[in-house]
């Protein structure tokens, strides 16, 4: 914990010191074979199931594609390079998309096709066809409903949920995280003294608080498999198959998007292989890349190497370490979801910010 916050502070200092150095400098001095960009959602609509994370509009995303298309490579090129020593141009760019939201098919796919750019779509396989609901979407819908509540409805809802705002937090670490999230979401809390308590209670729910989440969804009437008037939150198997037939690569992103960092090696192997098998079954791909839900920087690389050796189905592994050094079978990614402040693409800025921290200072 202390180490993490020290590292965060050191990175913040690096960013304020070196953050304005032009991208070309970094590309020349510390080139990378590939810069993999990671998106979750692109949409022009306000989505009640996607309120907790930033996302770009179609136009903003297209600006990124236009910026990157000259350097864009396919997943196949990257796999050939990393695993079979084929050459790719320095500082190539690969587009990747996590979670398998319906917008991958309806919004992202047409833009990539228009510019003839490849993409890797990492799907959490239980969510295909909306067969299971995603904790984060349910939480987002509850927050969205809580935000829309009129002030006089708050007390009855709090009572129905049996929230005791005066009770000490059950899990102080989670409570701190909820406070941070509340701040980051800039939710309006001063119109009613207990609206804040409602948000905090919701934001401190964890994946394992199933009963509480069921209760919250029922009381707030947040329906997890229907996004307002839309029919689906996630892609269908048929859409995933079509993406694959059109030449895009489908990757696996866990069965139900549970955090995998603390799993024992057997449990980890089981989850990685199982979701890759589902992707193979849907698409017919012989090899399936895998991306860690929530990131897997805490997973030992020797353990991963063993899993890959035993399971040739699983190909490259994608993680969330920005431009940090890792073995060749791991592709770290830079998050590109934050919408730009200006009218043009903000990918160059995101890359400058990623390149200016010491963990990116190596040639790859
Ligand atoms: Zn994810």
Task: Provide structural commentary.
The protein is of the alpha/beta class and about 375 residues long. Helix 5 (about 105-115) links the parallel strand 2 and strand 3 (about 120-125). It is globular, with a radius of gyration of 21 Å. It has helices at about 1-20, 25-30, 60-70, 75-85, 105-115, 135-150, 150-160, 170-185, 195-205, 210-220, 235-245, 265-285, 300-310, 345-355; strands at about 35-40, 90-100, 120-125, 250, 290, 315-320, 330-335. The two termini are about 30 Å apart. It has 14 helices and seven strands. It has a seven-stranded parallel beta sheet with strand order 4-3-2-1-7-6-5, sandwiched between helices. The structure holds zinc ion. Zinc ion binds near residues 98, 99 and 257.
Keywords:
11% strand, 14 helices, 364 residues, seven-stranded parallel beta sheet
Secondary structure: elements and pairs:
Elements: H1 2-18, H2 23-29, E1 34-39, H3 58-68, H4 75-84, E2 92-99, H5 103-114, E3 119-123, H6 135-148, H7 151-160, H8 172-185, H9 195-203, H10 210-220, H11 237-245, E4 249-252, H12 265-283, E5 288-291, H13 301-310, E6 314-319, E7 330-335, H14 347-355
Parallel strand pairs: 1-2, 1-7, 2-3, 3-4, 5-6, 6-7
Helix pairs in contact: 3-5, 6-9, 6-10, 8-9
The structure holds zinc ion.
